[in-house]
Amino acid sequence: MKGMTEQPTRWTEATVYPDMWTDPEKDPRNSEGPSPDGELATLLDYTTSYRMTLLMKCEGLTPEQLAQRSVPPSTMSLLGLLRHLAEVERDWHNWIGDEDPLPKLYGKRDADFDEAVGEQAQVHAAYADLAREQAATDAALALHPDLAERVGEEKIAVRELYVHRVEEYARHCGHADLLRECIDGRVGQ
After folding, report:
1. pLDDT tens-digit profile of 7-30?
2. H-helix or E-strand containing 150?
3. Where do the domains of the chain lie, and which CATH numbers do they carry?
């Protein structure tokens, strides 16, 4: 692990805009044409884009790099973010239904970050957990297309769940920007 005084050289793959992650024609988030019509379509579009951004920030790194911590005493890492967002997706899914909540994925509070280690099996599991939990939450929310509907035991508005998802992913994509730059110097949104 690099010392806090060692800084990697900043770089990007982008040639068109030097502050971008990649050039527009290679960016899977780049959509030509008008933005989606309607509130639900817009919320889904933003969720998809931020999910892709997080995965892009993790691409091409070794398990050890994914598990590299930010700055002490924080235990935040890109691998921890993958695990954390899988845990959060499960929480959101639990909020939607009236059935007994599913247990935490990683056990005790903050285990998603604290117990993230640079092992290939854990990296594969984190990606699988995230994809599975995202799909479960997406499927549960698809049953409630009325954004004003209130769901679950706490009667939370479906709109609030969607907005919370966008906010959570956006916030953690900002963390991912900084983590990735500290790991190998790659910059860009």
Report:
1. 899 888 888 888 888 888 888 887
2. strand 150-151
3. 37-184 (1.20.120.450)
